[in-house]
# Entry
Amino acid sequence: MSRLPRVCPIGFPQHVIQRGNNRQICFGSEQDFYAYIGWLKTFSSKFGVAVHAWVLMTNHVHLLCTPFKENGISLMMQALGRVYVRYFNRSYRRSGTLWEGRYKSCLVEEEQYFLHLHRYIELNPVRACMVKDPSDYAWSSYQINALGKTSDLCTHHPLYLALGRNDNERQASYREMFTYHLEGELLDEIRKTIHSGMALGNDRFKGELEMLTGRRLNSLPPGRKLGWRKSKT
# Structure
């Protein structure tokens, strides 16, 4: 069965995750992280994608980004995946696939969920018990968004810029967001939508996207579809 094309409307943020095949390591050294970040800068610029938040874990990657060109995220991820696999296989004298199939993605409602996804992504190393504070992890966007570290990869979203009147105010407000962790229904909802490929947002947002794209972006209720019984002959 052929795979459906991705829904990737211009100007709508997306949460993207790509895992190593069978959760195998895809970053084995600092050089690997540097290489991936370098190519992410190159291809996000080439294909018109603004990258707002990210984290590189040892066996997977999370990105929060907005495309401003047609199919920008798909083209970026395809180019990035190909060049990084070649680099990784050459570096470790291996062959074959590295990634677990296609990357997963979901569209994100800005007002209600966007900044929550910032926290979800940048708190990954804390949830994995790799560090106690997100500022201690070098391979995420937290140091840029919260501490003012310079980066030519990060593009601040208008919702981030609205956190304060200047950089110091924005960074202080951003750090305040991390005084509590994501948990409960919100955490479950974020995980569910990225794995299902459905949109992360309220019913109105999903309905508007379905009208725009002609694709269903809301989960069906559990159970058989209405009218599944066939009349006996």
